[in-house]
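step: validate -> pass
step: tokenize input -> pass
step: predict -> running
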Amino acid sequence: MQKLWITRPLPDKVVTEAQRYFDVEVRAETLPLTKAERMRALTEFDAVLPTLGDAFDASCFEGQPRCRILANFGVGFNHIDAKAARAAGVAVSNTPGAVTDATADIAMTLMLMTCRRAGEGERMVRDGNWPGWHPTQLLGMHVTGKTLGVVGMGRIGQAIAQRAALGFGMKIVFHNRSAVAGLPFEAAQLPQLEDVLQAADVVVLAVPATPETHHLIDAAALGVMKRESVLINIARGDVVDEAALIEALQQGRIAGAGLDVYEFEPKVPEALRVMENVTLLPHLGTSAQEVREDMGLMAVANLVAFFKDGKPLNPV
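step: predict -> pass
step: emit ->
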């Protein structure tokens, strides 16, 4: 029986399923692997089930690792140098379908909280500073009928757009690196990113983290957005130049932001934390019991398929 290391505590349902097929060791720590632990992962186990923050860079794969597959828990795998892994004979997989709806729901949560100033209102009530209702208190953006700009129309981008279009009557414009057709809602694909940024009242980022998307939203991109617009990021933190975002918010070049991810996560700049017009969540994208179970079960299924057929169900 192959040895499997699960690098963080996972739901019991996932661990039980993994134990049906593998000799499982579950690491008790909730923080990312240290360098020494990453080396142990590759030299002492046949398979590893890592997740966000477990940084397997190219140097980890020097030599001849015992490990044959990294079955990532999550859709994003920018913490793994997949090219270097494959060159060393280590397969890499992820869990794409399981995360779609939950992540889209968090995008909608951020949009509504930021546009309707719900975070500000909640803090006002909790702090005992609510003076009572009056007609001009915490006036925000009415999202119904507004234009949503989606950057990255993959599974998650489509799920967000569908919720916005069918649930809130929003007009959808989007930018994607390849043509997208056959959507179950009305949407216009615009040729340039800047076209979407200029047209949208709310911009939501749903692109993967790649060298090409690093700082995709920089000072220049923020500069073409409407002053009354809101930026939502549920992709990866480094898709946004965080320093440029802070400056744009401080100078009033955009109206607000809703963030579930951060460039130097888990560090969140104080400049963002003190802004009332910014909604901050602690990477809750897939944080639901059923979703985390589905992600774990998909990762296990990738492992089982790999050792049975030589290829995971969701290779990257």
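step: describe -> The chain has a mean pLDDT of 97.
step: cleanup -> pass
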